[in-house]
What does this fold into?
Amino acid sequence: MSLAVVILAAGKGSRMKSALPKVLHEIGGRTLLAHTIAAAQRLSPDQLVIVTGHAGERVASEAKLHSEAAVIVHQDDQLGTAHAVDMARTALADHSGYTIVLYGDSPFIQADTMKAMQAECDAGASLCVLGFEAENPTGYGRLVMGENGLDAIVEEKEANDEIRKITLCNSGVMCAKTTLMFDLIAKVDNDNAKGEYYLTDVPYFAKKAGGRCAVVTCPEAETLGIDSRAGLAKGEALFQAKARSAAMASGVTLRDPETAYFSFDTKLGQDVVVEPYVQFLTGVHVDDAVHIKAHSVLEGCHVSTGAIVGPYARLRPGAVIGPKARIGNFVEIKNADLAAGAKINHLTYVGDATIGADANIGAGTITCNYDGVFKHRTSIGARAFIGSNSSLVAPLNIGDDAVVGSGSVITENVGDGDMAIGRSRQVTKKSLGKRFMDALRAKKKEK
Ligand code: UD1
Ligand code: MG
It folds into this structure.
């Protein structure tokens, strides 16, 4: 049966105390909303509707970034979760399958769980609610179970002492036939403690109409809703724990797993070794048998087989590191292509550059790529040797097998096999060193 997913993302998230709407906060390098959209997309829905409200335009553009096909509907006033779903009524007027409602602030929901909910509806339930056993149920809607499945969901504010003791709670995820979902929502009023239209009243009306409501359960962590900065930190920790386990399961050595930080799209090959305190920001792809030493930070880069990176290396977007290349400590690489076996071992900045195979870039080399307005490229040939502490002023071409003398400021191209020295000539004055120091020491004694 065809499937529509409605993601509620209209709330402000007051408890985040933020200028950013809640669903645009990030876990593992992508927004809560993007995580939720990705979860929905794993079910290949034929329609995806996103309900925006607070900071609607920003939320809508983030949604469109991750799903061009998504229909965005706007909820002017946040009158409750049932009212929010009702915003999708027109968009789904012709939809004949199931609708699943997700919250935009619950990034960990799994496809299998949602499929199990659909299966309950296939098996004859009018609707299915996703529940979880809460360690601390305070604040959640409680699932009141009867002889024939779910009788009702009671919100914390409406619950009596008896109901508050129930630990089986509502995650907020709900699945029902689309037509039934909207028929039931039309019956919901706002005569309750918060004066809101509660989506959680829907099961009550389904039962009243003679239907049966099913419950599927999942671990609490899967339904974690992010409401505060503390919740965001908890979500990040959950994400990192999962990413570390997945990396190790796929053949990556993490010397100290707790200190390796991943993004949602980090790709590490087999036999990659990651030393303590390494951060993978977004867009990192590392091939097999790469060694990443301690305290390195990688973003938007590709590291090829057998390369060694770090300690304390920084690979920025557009860094492409060839096979068996060597990037040492305090080296920053940005938008640069290094061929196989290139070595940049110490204290260097390489930006907007191409470095040939087996080239050796000495300590303290700087590609001066920025003139204050424009960026320029530096090209260094295969087997070239750049002496330490050289400034390479781009645009610049240095040929294959070329040599640059240490301490040079190179402003003109250097041909294949040539040597360039761009510094003032050394002057040595016979015995002056000793005479000079002796004179200074004598002066000190006099004082
Ligand atoms: C809701 C459930 C509660 C459940 C809990 C799980 C209701 C009435 N209560 O409570 O049973 O245990 O989630 O976390 O549904 N939203 C809108 N428009 C609105 C109101 C809310 O888009 O008018 C969105 C929010 O942005 C959020 C989601 O719906 O993403 C849930 O709203 P929230 O206010 O957090 O509901 P809870 O009080 O947590
Ligand atoms: Mg909530």
The mean pLDDT is 97. The two ends are 98 Å apart (CA to CA). The longest strand covers residues 326-338. Residues 225, 227 surround magnesium ion (ligand 2) (CB under 6 Å).
